[in-house]
Amino acid sequence: MNKNYDFLTVKNHIEITEYIQKSKFISHVFPIHSEYQAADIINRIKKEHYKATHNVYAYVLGENKEIQKSTDDGEPSGTAGIPVLEIIKKEGLNNILIIVTRYFGGVKLGAAGLIRAYVHMAKLGIKKSTIIKNVLCEKIRVTIDYSYWSKIENEINNRNNIIHEVEFLDKVNISLFLQKHEKEELINYIKNTTNGNYLIKTFGYRYISMDINKK
């Protein structure tokens, strides 16, 4: 597992509709975590919009964005799925599925028009989405004496470290989610502040969603 890995994705599902040359286009944007989840969502949208002319989709998954799939779903080859996929890649997003539903309105757009329409709907869906950063963090628990708590609490808050919970028992147990560089810096601070009088336990890694402006 790449412990320095992080990526941009969307926070939640959004849906937006626009009419282009009398055709109704609906852009659906979803955060996803697996191909199984992507397939389930695609099937659900197809059932919901079974009267639609096309349900074009593209998605990107994997730590190195190694899973990339798209389909034109009946549109001329290369005019729908691939343009949507290229927008996802251009925006640097991962673990994301975009489905663009089209209800044909009677006006043929031609190859260039179709590409413009699907690119526009993919961009519009992303623009209307909330973009977040998923960062791989390690969960740790630090145990200290009460006499150190106030100073260490201030330092944690100043660093904007993510506190999961604090337990006040015979000692103070502080559970945090930390990136690699945050862990090294904070533990060094705690070590110096407590003169080494602390305990630490690790609980593995998980992804934490952060505001894209955080560090």
What does this structure look like?
By secondary structure, this protein is an alpha+beta fold. It has helices at residues 35-48, 81-90, 110-128, 146-159, 180-193, and strands spanning 6-10, 14-20, 23-31, 54-61, 67-71, 96-103, 131-144, 162-168, 172-178, 199-211. The protein has five helices and ten strands; from the N terminus they run βββαββαβαβαββαβ. The strands form two sheets. Strands 1, 7, 8, 9 and 10 form a five-stranded antiparallel sheet that branches. Strands 2-3-6-4-5 form a five-stranded antiparallel sheet, sandwiched between helices.
List keywords for this structure.
215 residues, alpha+beta, Ribosomal Protein S5, domain 2, Alpha-Beta Plaits, five-stranded antiparallel beta sheet, 10 strands, 33% helix
Chain-wise SSE layout:
Elements: E1 6-10, E2 14-20, E3 23-31, H1 35-48, E4 54-61, E5 67-71, H2 81-90, E6 96-103, H3 110-128, E7 131-144, H4 146-159, E8 162-168, E9 172-178, H5 180-193, E10 199-211
Antiparallel strand pairs: 1-7, 2-3, 3-6, 4-5, 4-6, 7-9, 7-10, 8-9
Helix pairs in contact: 2-3, 4-5
Per CATH, the class of the largest domain reads: Alpha Beta
Roughly what fraction of the amino acids lie in strands?
A: 35-45%
Determine the structural class based on helices, strands and strand pairing.
alpha+beta
Number of helices: 5
Give helix % range. Answer: 25-40%
